[in-house]
Structure formats: C-alpha cells, structure tokens
Amino acid sequence: MRNQDRKARKNFDNHAAKLPTYFATLEACVPATRSELAKRIPKDTAGIYAFYHNDQPVYVGRTRDLRRRLGEHGRVGSTHYSASFAFLRARRAAEAKGHVLTGKSRAELSDDKEIFKPFFVSEKAVVASMAVRWVVVDDAVTQALLEVYAALALETEFNSFVTS
C-alpha cells in the first residue's frame, strides 16, 4: 500500500471511529419543536439533525448553522432550495394523489402554482411541526460521514444518496 493510501485510510478511520459516539448523542438528544430551537441551539452551531414524524425518524441533514437551517425547512416563505425536505414530501404527496411529476425540475414544480404549490405549502407546515434531534459536529468531514451513517442506521425514508 502506498504511503498516500495509508494516510488516507488512517484519516478516514479516525473520522469513522467517532461516528458511533456522535450517533448515540443524536439518539439521546431530547427532541425539540421548532419554537424551542432558539432557546436550545446557539447561533452558528454546526451539526447533524434528524426530523421525527409520529416518533419515527424520517430525514437526516447536516449544516453549518443548525438553528438557521432547521428554521428554513418549515418556514412559510422558504423555497425549494431551503425547504428541501418539505419539497421531497410535497413531491411524494402530489404523486400519491395521481399527479405525474416525472421529468419536471424543481424550478418547474416551484412555478406550478395550481398543482404543486398547495402540496408544498402543506408539507412545509407538517415539517415545521415535527420534532427534531441534533448533535453538534464542527468538522465537515465527520458531518458528511455521520449524515450517511445516521440516515442508514435510522432507515430514514426521505434520505436518498442518488444524484441526478
């Protein structure tokens, strides 16, 4: 094994070794509602978060600012960029009602005031009411690995690592 490969493997292993502890902290976090976030999370706190709907984990994300990001997910004025989880839920809800959205971009759906917008507005309200757990993680590499680890461990239905 080349020296560069050994260094990369050691670096990865160091990050990976932290994941079970961070995950246990995430699971042990007392859930908060959106209105409680400002009291419990200082500004500019980086980390991983998990949304829970009916006490079931449904989505995991990561951010440089937990308080800001968690607020964006359910804010009435948030767009498809900042309320990505609600957007995914809205897409699924619209398709479940028989609307064919295959091949439509996020921008196209966001411009669809007649069919898609009511679903998106509704799902932002649902997300805003969900409980959230989080763990503070400053390191970006550890965050990225923990996001995948937590999504897999929690078997969240709205996390997909497929790219377009």
Automatic annotation (TrEMBL):
<dbReference type="InterPro" id="IPR000305">
    <property type="entry name" value="GIY-YIG_endonuc"/>
</dbReference>
<protein>
    <recommendedName>
        <fullName>GIY-YIG domain-containing protein</fullName>
    </recommendedName>
</protein>
<dbReference type="Pfam" id="PF01541">
    <property type="entry name" value="GIY-YIG"/>
</dbReference>
<dbReference type="InterPro" id="IPR035901">
    <property type="entry name" value="GIY-YIG_endonuc_sf"/>
</dbReference>
<feature type="domain" description="GIY-YIG">
    <location>
        <begin position="47"/>
        <end position="78"/>
    </location>
</feature>
